[in-house]
Amino acid sequence: MDTTSLDAKRRPFSLKMWPPSQNTRRVLVERMTNNLSTKSILTEKYGTLNKEEAEENAKQIEDVAFVAADQKYEKEPDGDGSSAVHCYARECSKMLLEVLKKGSSSKESKVVSDSTPKQTSFDISKGTRAFIEAEEAEKLLSPLKEPGNAYTKICFSNRSFGLGAARVAEPILISLKNQLKEVDLSDFIAGRPEAEALEVINIFAAALEGSELRFLDLSNNALGEKGVRAFGALLKSQSCLEELYLMNDGISEEAAQAVHELIPSTDKLKILHFHNNMTGNEGAFAISKIVKHSSLLEDFRCSSTRVGSEGGVALCEALGTCTHLKKLDLRDNMFGVEGGIALSRAISKHEHLKEIYLSYLNLEDEGVVALANVLKESAPSLEVLDIAGNDITAKAAPALAACIGVKTFLTQLNLGENELKDEGTIQISKVLEGLSQLKEVDLNSNSIRRAGARVLAQAVVQKLDFKLLNINGNFISDDGIDEVKALFKKSPHMLGSLDENDPEGEDDAEDDEESGDDEGNEDALESKLKNLEVDQDE
């Protein structure tokens, strides 16, 4: 992308007197603080401020003067910036004298009144998703230009910025970047041609370069590698990030590598979300390097990223260093058994885990058993366990039941779209009886019949705070449906829809022989498992 012509029309800042460097601004604040708090001809006449008051007022004076001078500079794009410098000095001098005249230890001595709380969050994402051009940007962003504003968080999501709007935002962001802590630029270039979108990103990245952000959301921008690198100026300057969101951004192998290259440090990172990208195995290797150096990570999401077994193993091994994890979401990838086993090794010391989402990973019985055995001894405060869609059969039920049975804080359990059938369902149902905080259970589409449905319903229906049981999409007979509904007669809202249940559903011939579909065989199975005890100490 050739930006020479665009840059020629804009001001080559490096050759001009404006804007001042951050060090120049800091030195000026220190100088004004000294002028307000030490003896001089002026302070002998009007009095001095204490050090704290002086510093607070000096910072506010400099902020207001900078915005005024920057606005003047914008109106004289062909100048060398000297008029902006004169305006900057004049405004500082004028406000410095005003503060001294108002005197010390007074609310009036402050440049901006403290009589009303200042807003710290600025959000334009509400309302209709739409393009935004220069004229509208002038009006929409005008509050950010108010002298002495206290905005630390901005959200420009849901509005698509064109070049004109970006140039309006540029000086505003430059004037604010030293106070900003949270920036949301998700979905802010939608529908723009690639060349324009990349130039908009470059403008925003350069304007925010050097800010010390704790929160950055760049999601829903279809960035790809080009977009990630266009954000390079901003990303390279970030060493204090605590939250980073790159969801639905077209993060490919190359883009993931770019993210890893550009961010200098993630040692303070607590939340990292990569949901819905096309990362693949090679991209997962790059992400795993980021994760490995994010030891304070508490919330990691890498769901729906097309990661296979090799990439899954790399990610899981990296997660072994993140012992502060509270929430882990790896859903909808192709980790396989190997990924499950690698994850079981990684989380053996994760005592803080509260939510685990591992659905649709192709873990199968072997991978699930490995995880269940480890989780039984770790994550004592686990509240959410989601392992739906992993081809889990009754063979894994004993290990699952032993694990689930000791999770006394568990509130949500999702085992939907597996093959637990009645045998596995009944074993797990027995341990659910002792979980008093359980609120939601999902065992949809598990080839469950009448016996399994009845035992499961009996295990949860009496729980005080229970909210929902989902057993839709199973093979429960009409009589079995009537029994379940009778159990939930006093609280029908706790029973999910049964409109996809197939009372005539049949497994293959071998399964029919094992489980049977007549009432006698179902009752026999329930009787056989009725007094089942799961050994939770092995």
Radius of gyration: 31 Å
**Distance from first to last alpha carbon:** 62 Å
In total, the number of strands is 15
Uncertain parts: 1-15, 112-116, 508-519, 530-538
Number of helices: 21
Average pLDDT: 88
Helix content: 40-55%
Q: Determine the structural class based on helices, strands and strand pairing.
A: alpha/beta
Main β sheet profile: 13 strands, parallel
Strand content: 5-15%
The rough form would be described as elongated
Walk across the major sheet and give the strand order: 1-3-5-6-7-8-9-10-11-12-13-14-15
Question: Can you give me a brief rundown of this structure?
Answer:
By secondary structure, the protein is α/β, with parallel strands linked by helices. Helix content is 44%, strand content 8%.
